[in-house]
Design goal:
This protein is mainly alpha-helical. Helix content is about 60%, strand content about 10%. A three-stranded mixed sheet has the order 1-3-2, sandwiched between helices. Helix 1 crosses helix 4 and helix 6 packs parallel to helix 8.
Length: about 190
């Protein structure tokens, strides 16, 4: 859509970010991520991989349409990471989203045995863990974003503006939610 993305550069960035995350956050132990996919239509990509979601009573398609990233947990305890391709790939937000989603994968693996569950998919229904990993992933993504912005200070003003918009829109977003879990999800995103 008007922007040309150099796939070799993009693949190099993906490799550098995942290698950095594995080294710094996971003691050099690889994470079971089968693929990282950039998508234009997040909702249809999620439903293609998890069709059962649309039949759940609490299904809110706007939540999935608006998310910038999503981790699809696979039955073999691996994951596929989806990242929304929107706007410019020349900012650091997609990179922070990748770190956010990698953090989910790490958290799910770390807590699998603690919660006495056999598959990552089971853990999606464990509300306290789900809220905690949202907070943790948001925190790790923002820390990575700030590290990148420190290297490119011209991005700072956009970061400040985006953060203030998120804070100002929080009350309205929370008021629109009727589901307790979703209110918790948005609260974790704000404070993470």
């Amino acid at each position: 859509r008007g922007e040309i993305v150099n796939l070799n550069e993009l693949n190099q960035f993906l490799k550098e970010i995942t290698d950095y995350y594995i080294k710094v956050e996971n003691n050099g132990i690889p994470l079971p991520v089968d693929e990282i996919v950039f998508v234009h239509d997040m909702l249809s990509e999620i439903l293609k991989r998890e069709p059962y979601l649309s039949s759940q009573p609490s299904f809110d398609k706007s939540k999935y349409e608006s998310c910038g990233g999503y981790t699809v947990l696979l039955p073999n305890n691996a994951a596929t990471i989806l990242i929304k391709k929107e706007g410019s790939m020349n900012n650091f937000y997609w990179m922070a989203t990748l770190v956010h989603e990698l953090t989910h994968v790490k958290d799910y693996l770390d807590y699998l045995s603690i919660l006495n569950m056999k598959t990552l998919v089971e853990m999606k229904n464990h509300l306290p863990f789900w809220l905690w990993t949202e907070f943790h992933a948001k925190y790790k993504g923002y820390m990575f974003l700030l590290m990148m912005i420190k290297k490119c200070p011209e991005q700072m003003q956009q970061y400040i503006q985006d953060t203030l918009e998120r804070v100002y829109s929080f009350e309205k977003t929370l008021d629109m939610q009727t589901d307790f879990a979703q209110k918790g999800y948005y609260t974790m995103h704000l404070i993470g």
